[in-house]
Design brief:
Elements: H1 3-14, E1 17-18, H2 19-28, H3 34-37, H4 50-53, H5 55-71, E2 78-83, H6 89-98, H7 102-107, E3 108-113, H8 117-126, E4 133-137, E5 149-154, E6 163-168, E7 171-179, E8 185-194, E9 205-208, H9 210-226, E10 228-237, E11 247-250, E12 253-255, E13 265-267, E14 270-271, H10 272-282, E15 285-286, E16 290-291, H11 292-298, H12 301-311, H13 316-327, E17 336-342
Parallel strand pairs: 2-3, 2-5, 3-4, 5-10, 10-14
Antiparallel strand pairs: 1-7, 6-7, 6-9, 7-8, 10-17, 11-12, 11-13, 15-17, 16-17
Helix pairs in contact: 5-6, 9-10, 12-13
Bound molecules: S-adenosyl-L-homocysteine.
Length: 354
């Protein structure tokens, strides 16, 4: 049975399912989930992320990691952790940049947190000759906490399942996935309303994510226990807001989120304030949220682009376009945000530049 047929059977049996349960099935169902069975990243796949745009992205994150290591007092051993490493481009570029700081490079033990078996295989192949020890785990809880941690994640939080509520008939009602009269998957509003202080207008939509809050709390607690810092880059909001941000991406185009369960990447904009509040509840300090442009400029992306162009004059135009895609307002520069959690006592490890 296809995932769609199994979801319909489940809805017939149990009633409409939450958007979170739908996302979870579409992404991680062992037989049909997108990441579990057919993740396709990059130009020839379904979507492009910053590490695919340019090596500069991972390199600058590697330098950020080195500066955190300095701030931690140059510990002899440190765990460099990445959540959702995809094709392992980011970590490859970050490790290459880290070599420029030999004591840091020598201190690294890398940990990759990945649930997708096909992506784990790609990561193992890409990192087969890496000169640092690399460990894989499926959960944050698999990482020991007896050394400082430096955590990186790009486009990971947007995969965490969200729930939705819609204002209708004078109340917020959970927006779930059920069936229409023809037996096809369709959004439905639950009869019972969700108690909330704020009101809405007909059709207004709210999103929240228990998974994001739970993850934020656990990351905050890990950082507080082990000491260190975490950097999460993703598209999302830097203040609370309303609106439907659930989207399905296949072959670089959006499609209806109910159209092809398991065949498209399904994501939502990250509610960064909620994530950071959860991290704070877990014991970490939250730095101000920056745009990706401000963050990458602070790490010197312009100088790095110039150096790369000088070394590869025939590629100068392309390198400039890649830089603009990462920091331009029409590219990823403003939609994407950089959020950082760090352990109490550490110097704030983010700094932006106009
Ligand atoms: N960071 C990469 C890939 C982003 S795609 C890049 O920027 O190119 C999302 C990644 O998160 C994939 O590697 C996917 O398998 C992983 N992922 C999604 N949900 C996850 C979860 N709950 N736990 C661990 N990894 C997850």
């Amino acid at each position: 049975m296809s995932l769609r047929e199994r979801l319909i059977a489940r809805i017939v049996r149990d009633g409409p399912i939450s958007v979170a349960d739908y996302m979870d099935a579409c992404l991680h169902d062992p037989a049909d989930g997108y990441y579990a069975t057919r993740p396709r990243l990059g130009e020839a796949g379904d979507f492009i992320t910053a590490p695919h745009v340019s090596q500069m992205f991972g390199e600058l994150l590697g330098l950020w990691a080195a500066s955190v290591w300095e701030g931690l007092g140059r510990p002899a051993r440190v765990r460099l952790i990445e959540f959702g490493p995809g094709d392992a481009i980011l970590v490859t570029d970050a490790l290459r940049a880290a070599r420029a700081v030999p004591d840091f490079f020598g201190a690294i033990e890398a940990w990759l947190v990945e649930t997708s078996a096909p992506l784990r295989e790609r990561q193992k192949a890409a990192l087969s000759s890496a000169a640092v020890s690399i460990h894989w785990t499926e959960h944050l809880e698999g990482i020991p906490d007896d050394r400082p941690v430096i955590i990186l994640a790009n486009e990971f939080l947007d995969c965490l399942p969200i729930r939705q509520a819609i204002w209708t008939d004078g109340g917020w009602r959970e927006r779930r996935i059920g069936m229409d009269k023809t037996g096809e998957l369709a959004f439905v509003a639950c009869a019972s309303s969700i108690p909330r202080a704020d009101t809405g207008g007909n059709g207004d939509l709210l999103e929240w994510s228990d998974a994001l809050a739970h993850f934020g709390q656990r990351v905050g607690a890990l950082i507080a226990r082990a000491s260190g810092a975490a950097l999460f880059i993703d598209y999302g909001r830097d203040r609370s807001g309303r609106g439907d941000t659930l989207q399905a991406l296949r072959g670089h185009a959006t499609e209806g989120v109910l159209e092809n369960p398991g065949h498209a990447d399904l994501t939502a904009h990250v509610d960064f304030p909620a994530f950071l509040v959860a991290g704070f509840a877990g014991g970490a300090i939250a730095a101000p949220i920056l745009s990706q442009a401000t963050f990458l400029r602070g790490l010197g992306i312009r100088a790095r682009a110039e150096a790369l162009a000088r070394a590869n004059p025939d590629q100068a135009g392309k390198i400039g376009r890649q830089r603009d895609r990462l920091i331009g307002p029409d590219g990823m520069g403003e939609l994407f945000k950089a959020a950082c959690l760090y352990s109490p006592g550490l110097h704030p490890p983010v700094f932006g530049a106009p």
